[in-house]
Design brief:
The protein has 920 residues and is α/β, with parallel strands linked by helices. The relative contact order is 0.06. The chain has an eight-stranded mixed sheet with strand order 12-22-21-14-15-16-17-13. It has an eight-stranded parallel beta barrel with strand order 24-25-26-27-28-29-30-31, surrounded by six helices. A hairpin with a 4-residue loop joins strand 18 and strand 19.
């Protein structure tokens, strides 16, 4: 994810703390200052500017956080700036922070540029103390409310600021409810809460090594530092890696005057969405909780009521909220996620942001907003991405066979929080989810409710199931952001995390039992439910038509956006395919040719013996005999491939891997020969094979006898393959076909290698043309997969009609990595330490590998302006990499058939984002 800097915001390199403004009132900012004020602060300022009811407050900038993180100390000017803004806030509110008889209370909340739900810290009710709690009770006329607010402050402050184990407070709260004989905290009275406050203060003194601070300014200052520190907690860093958020952005801190949703039944708090974030459908969506503070809704500790119920609870506030939601969606031109509080019948807006949504919702909402005239097609294209499209292509459950007899059993139903079909073994804590996942098990994480400490388990799990919470709970919001399947609020499921089991209707599901959860319907099953292809895949396969009367609404949205992407994209999209079946599927998925046909895959199975024969040949006659046997088989393969891709280019890579890969394993063969010799039953062919294996054995085969080197060392090998290609093309042409074959020489490091192979290939092609009476337009090019090839691309272009960047091997050789070794050994540590934001084998390393690609493009085109350029590594289907390949001016990307729609979409997004410009 690239960092878009606001022109008014200094960069880390130019940052000069001297004379810099670090604090902004809510009246001073706007929604475009997310770099400086964070998403929350920028949007609070925007709502203030729109005249919406926002509690007064101010924002400490991300620049202050960066100074703190860089130096370990806050900027020297920060305290005075905060004091000045606090004085202004106190004057506006007519009371002082923590004032004994009528206290001003504030919340201290994090707010980074990119939403990181639940990953950083928040503290509410700052300013309460042993003295001011009495004043708050008198002013509110509600002693219970005041002591409830105080116990919440000590609990949040103790856990967040002082590092006390949060379970200690939860256990004390549960014990208080049990002693009173109640199940929810709202049934605890003022006297109960006073006792709880004493207990909480003792817990703080014992476990934090200090008393709970009674000075309100000390509370606020410590809370601000805690928010700064929370930027670098393990869970925040893990979330940023997962979402590819840069680690140097820092967080803003929002100081906001408190409004209270826990003042009684005429108060409450809620989260609203202007559209359903799970499906994209328009309507009233969200959760509301009476007599509660905001954290209660997000945490999912108490089950909420649907937002629509607010109309019967408080119609005036409901109607005002509906008007505000419509105004915000029109203003932001997108789905908005809103947090609000009602304090004794008065509505307050605490936050808004462009809401996280599921993949299906993203496509539906984008097309809906086009139809409403709020955005154009180009903007709609930017509202979706390839990762979301890939999610829509995953299979879904086929529950038609679920019955009362054998097979999967329906256990219950919760809230469909994030769609998808997930199957795995039940686990009841994050640690087990990670541990089992690393050993290859698929798991479903089951909790009463999740909290930020569960993030690593949520990432490791196939899906998340909770018995509490709604569509706006922590589990739901984080799962939607990650594209994880999630079912929340399945109340009939009784989750016992300590005993690692779940019960429903007398049935016990133990840890390790297989369960299936359907995030689209909310259904939960015992056992593995079979899956069927998604409607989106059916559409790409041509079995479902977007314009049909019974067309799926989602398919219609995908079709519209894909059609626009295809109209605007410059990059063509090809497939990596080695047989006619894959080629035909790729063509159905929108492939515009084959960018990589790996001929080594044609030598497997029964044909392996012919390759062995070639390797074991002692004379020219034996070698030619083996090649003669392979020729018709290769030709038949190419005829099928050219027919499947008739009229489209097919790039055929000549044999690339080391020959030993076609021979038996050296250990297995050695044992076989030794056993045969011990029985005096030696096999002559096995002995010759063992000699050949020893002869061809290499310490580092990736850098050994492979690619173009095979063609130069083994006479006739490449000539046979070129002849097979040429004869197949001639046969297709004589059959009125339109073959467009391209011959690709692998692993070239110097132009001399290519010149020798090309001279031989040109001669073979000329012979075939003469023999068949056809004129073949076969082009010859090379893979750029070695640093030297990239550095001498200008020279190589003299002999090559096209380049195809083999970014898999180029990444290995640039980094000095053996992929099979490093991914299993130390890549996890590199990712955890932040050396990589993402594996360079997954997304192109723009600074290293990308720099070589860019220079090779420039040098190659300087030599040969009409040089065709493509990429055939796995990066060709990676969304972020596709944007880079568009930028540097490649003509096409090539990827596996299943990823073709993703590449098409991202090529369109790249063109629309750059308004068609690129380096060419």
């Amino acid at each position: 994810m690239s960092e878009n800097k606001d022109p008014h915001v200094s960069t880390p390199e130019s940052r000069d703390p001297q004379g810099q403004k670090f604090v902004y009132d809510f009246t001073e900012g706007n929604k475009d200052l997310k770099d400086l004020l964070g998403g929350k602060g920028a949007n609070l300022a925007e709502m203030t500017n729109l005249g919406l009811p926002v509690p007064p407050g101010f924002t400490i900038t991300t620049e202050a956080c960066k100074v703190y993180l860089d130096s370990g100390e806050e900027p020297t000017e920060l305290r005075d700036e905060v004091s000045a803004h606090l004085d202004a806030l106190e004057a506006r509110m007519g009371k002082k922070l923590g004032q004994a008889d009528d206290p001003l209370l504030v919340s201290v909340r994090s707010g980074a540029k990119f939403s990181m739900p639940g990953m950083m810290d928040t503290v509410l009710n700052i300013g309460l103390s042993d003295k001011s709690v009495v004043g708050l009770a008198a002013q509110a006329g509600d002693e219970r409310f005041a002591w409830d607010s105080y116990r919440r402050l000590i609990q949040m402050f103790g856990k967040t600021v002082l590092g006390v184990d949060g379970d200690l407070f939860e256990d004390a709260l549960e014990a208080a409810k049990e002693a009173k004989g109640v199940t929810v905290d709202v049934d605890l009275g003022a006297a109960d809460l006073k006792k709880l406050v004493k207990q909480f203060k003792k817990i703080v003194s014992r476990d934090a090594g200090r008393d709970f601070p009674q000075d309100p300014r000390e509370q606020m200052d410590l809370a601000i530092k805690a928010v700064f520190d929370s930027w670098n907690t393990d869970r925040a860093k893990l979330y940023r890696r997962q979402e590819r958020i840069p680690g140097d952005l820092g967080t803003a801190v929002n100081i906001c005057s408190m409004v209270f949703g826990n003042l009684g039944p005429d108060s409450g708090t809620g989260v609203a969405f202007t559209r359903d974030p799970a499906s994209g459908h328009q309507g009233v969506y969200g959760d509301y909780l009476q007599n509660a503070q905001g954290e209660d809704v997000v945490a999912g500790i108490r089950n909420t009521v649907p937002l629509a119920d607010l109309e019967s609870i408080d119609k005036k506030s409901y109607d005002q909220l509906m008007q505000i939601m419509e105004a915000l969606e029109t203003h932001y031109k997108d789905l908005c996620d809103i947090e609000f509080t009602i304090e004794r019948g008065r509505l307050w807006m605490l936050q808004t942001r462009v809401g996280k949504r599921t993949a299906g919702a993203a496509f539906r909402i984008a097309t809906q907003l086009v139809d409403q005239g709020l955005i154009d097609e180009a903007e709609a294209l930017q509202r979706v991405n390839g990762a979301q499209l890939a999610q829509l292509m995953f299979p879904r459950f086929d529950d038609t066979g679920v019955a009362d007899g054998n097979g999967p059993q329906l256990l219950g139903r919760g809230i469909a929080a994030s769609p998808g079909a997930a199957v795995g073994k039940a686990v009841f804590d994050s640690y087990t989810a990670v541990k089992w996942s690393r050993s290859g098990e698929k798991v479903i994480l089951i909790r009463r409710e999740t909290n930020p400490d569960d993030l690593d388990g949520m990432i490791a799990a196939e899906g998340i199931l909770t018995s509490r919470g709604g569509k706006t709970s922590h589990a739901a919001v984080v799962a939607r952001g990650m594209g994880k399947t999630c079912v929340c609020g399945a109340e009939e499921l009784e989750v016992d995390t300590k005993r690692r089991r779940m019960t429903v209707g007398g049935r016990v599901i133990e840890e390790g039992d297989v369960v299936s959860i359907d995030g689209s319907t909310g259904k939960v099953y015992l056992g593995e439910v079979p899956v069927v292809p998604s409607p989106v895949v059916e559409y790409f396969e041509g079995r479902m038509h977007a314009g049909a009367d019974d067309a799926d609404e989602l398919v219609a949205a995908v079709h519209r956006i894909m059609a626009y992407a295809d109209r605007v994209r410059r990059l063509r999209v090809r497939a990596n395919a080695d047989n006619a079946e894959d080629a035909l599927r790729a063509r159905r998925f929108g492939a515009q040719g084959i960018g990589l046909c790996r001929t080594e895959h044609m030598f497997l199975g029964e044909r392996r013996e012919l390759v062995e024969k070639l390797i074991l040949a002692d004379t020219d006659a034996e070698r030619e005999s083996a090649l003669d046997e392979l020729l018709p088989l290769q030709k038949a393969d190419f005829i099928e491939l050219f027919e499947a891709m008739d009229g489209l280019p097919v790039t055929v890579r000549l044999l690339d891997p080391p020959l030993h890969e076609f021979l038996p394993d050296i250990t297995e063969l050695s044992v076989r020969v030794a056993l045969a010799e011990s029985r005096k039953d030696a096999n002559e062919n096995d002995l010759r094979l063992l000699q050949a294996v020893h002869k061809l054995h290499e310490q580092n085969p990736m850098l050994g006898l492979r690619g173009v080197r095979l063609g130069l060392v083994i006479p006739g090998l490449f000539a046979m393959q070129v002849r097979a290609i040429a004869e197949a093309a001639a046969m297709r042409k004589n059959a009125k076909g339109d073959p467009r074959a391209e011959i690709m020489i692998p692993l070239v490091g110097t132009v001399q290698e290519l010149e020798i192979v090309r001279e031989e290939a040109d001669q073979v092609i000329a012979e075939v043309e003469a023999a068949t009476g056809t004129q073949l337009k076969l082009t010859i090019g090379t893979m750029i997969e070695l640093p030297r090839a990239a550095l001498t691309a200008g020279q190589i272009a003299e002999a090559a009609q096209f380049f195809s960047f083999g970014t898999n091997d180029l990444t290995q050789t640039v980094w000095g990595f053996s992929r099979d070794d490093v991914e299993a050994s130390f890549f996890t540590a590199y990712l955890e330490k932040g050396i990589f934001g993402v594996s360079p084998f997954e997304t192109i390393d723009k600074d290293g590998v990308g720099s070589l690609v860019r220079s090779a493009v420039e040098a190659g085109r300087a030599t040969r302006p009409d040089l065709k350029l493509g990429v055939c590594g796995e990066h060709g289907g990676d969304p972020e990499s596709v944007h880079f390949f568009h930028e540097v001016g490649l003509d096409y990307v090539s990827c596996s058939p299943f990823r073709i729609p993703v590449a098409r979409l991202e090529a369109g997004r790249a063109a629309a984002d750059s308004k068609g410009s690129d380096s060419r």
